[in-house]
Design brief:
Layout (H helix, E strand, L loop, with lengths): L9 H4 L10 H16 L5 E3 L20 H10 L4 E4 L6 E4 L8 E4 L22
Parallel strand pairs: 1-2, 2-4
Antiparallel strand pairs: 3-4
Bound molecules: fe (ii) ion.
Fe (ii) ion (FE2) binds next to loops.
Length: about 130
C-alpha cells in the first residue's frame, strides 16, 4: 500500500494538494520490495490513492499520478499486473492491453458519491499474464 498524497505544503497553502506522486525514497523502497517479491516468486498487488492510468479523457491532471510514466515502467519491469486505486471517485477499470504483461488499474468509487458502487474482486491463485 503506497501513500501517494502530498502533504508538505498543505498547511502553508491552506488546502490539501489534489495531485499525487511517488517520492524518490518511496520509489527506491518499492523497487526493493518488488525485487524481493521476484526472488520469492510472489505476485504483488499495489494499492494506492491516486491512479496509475487515466480513467477519464477529461479528468487527468491531479488524479493520475504525476510520475505515472516512471512508476509504470517500474511496475511493468517487475510484472505488476494489478493496481487498486481511488481518488477519481468512479468505478472503472483500465488496462494497457497493448503490452505483453497486461497491467490493470481498478479505481474504486467513493462513499461520498451516490449511488454507491462497489466491486467484487476475485483473484485466482497464481495470477498469470
Ligand atoms: Fe482523493
Amino acid at each position: 500500500m503506497l501513500d501517494t498524497n502530498k502533504y508538505k505544503d498543505n498547511i502553508s497553502v491552506g488546502i490539501p494538494a489534489v495531485d499525487g506522486l511517488i517520492k524518490q525514497g518511496t520509489y527506491d523502497w518499492i523497487q526493493k520490495c518488488l525485487e524481493s517479491a521476484k526472488e520469492n516468486g510472489s505476485e504483488v498487488i499495489v494499492v494506492m490513492h491516486h491512479n496509475i492510468m487515466d480513467h477519464s479523457e477529461v479528468i487527468r491532471d491531479g488524479y493520475t499520478l504525476n510520475n505515472h510514466g516512471q512508476v509504470s515502467i517500474l511496475f511493468k519491469e517487475y510484472q505488476v499486473h494489478l493496481v487498486l486505486s481511488g481518488h477519481i471517485h468512479i468505478q472503472d477499470i483500465c488496462s494497457d492491453q497493448k503490452e505483453i504483461n497486461t497491467m490493470y488499474d481498478i479505481a474504486s468509487g467513493a462513499l461520498s458519491v451516490y449511488p454507491h458502487h462497489y466491486g467484487i474482486l476475485n483473484i485466482p491463485f497464481g495470477i498469470t499474464a
